[in-house]
Amino acid sequence: MHISFFLFYFAFQSTFKMDNTKEQLEAIRDIRNIMERSSRFISLSGLSGVFIGIYALAGAWLAFEKTISASVSYFANEATAAQAEREWVMFFVLDALAVLVLSLLTATLLTIRNSRKKGIPVWDQTARRLMWNMMIPLVAGGVFCLAMIYNRNYQFLAPASLIFYGLALVNASKYTLNDIRYLGISQLALGLLACFLLDWEYSLMLWAAGFGLLHIVYGAFMYFKYERK
Question: Does residue 172 carry a pLDDT above 90?
Fold first, then answer.
């Protein structure tokens, strides 16, 4: 009788402890999720990555077509060479600006929608840290690319844009989802590879692969992993 009582008591205690352990683990998970939300910006939209990739591929195709026509004019005679170069530079800058503006607008709108859907503030301290850590390498890279255009040194434009963009993503990844780091490292790798393949066809292909294909793959992965329910 006493043995049965003690066995029942120990079984009850074990069950009670297991329940307490489960509750504690759940509480720890909740605390970790709250800390994750407060320290990381988790409202980035995967769909925006897909759209950015599409814009980049369209911009790369237009740049490819323009470069071919500019090359024909450039080698036709000396009189048209300077004019063809000026037209190509102006088109390249406008093309890049169009891709950038469309990408920023799309990313902003979809991120706001994602934040509202999750009930998370769009512009808080974490978002500001993310922006500053990403903008510093991007602004430095933009100025560097403008300096190369000013000095008529176009060979390293594609590698430099990939490298500085990759650095910006890696630098900002500590304030958002860890997956951003892998995208940044991939952009860096393509940029460094482009430094050794300076023919404009290869540079443009690697630029399109980085800003186009990688964004589409990354965006689709992020959408199915975090957003689609």
Answer: no
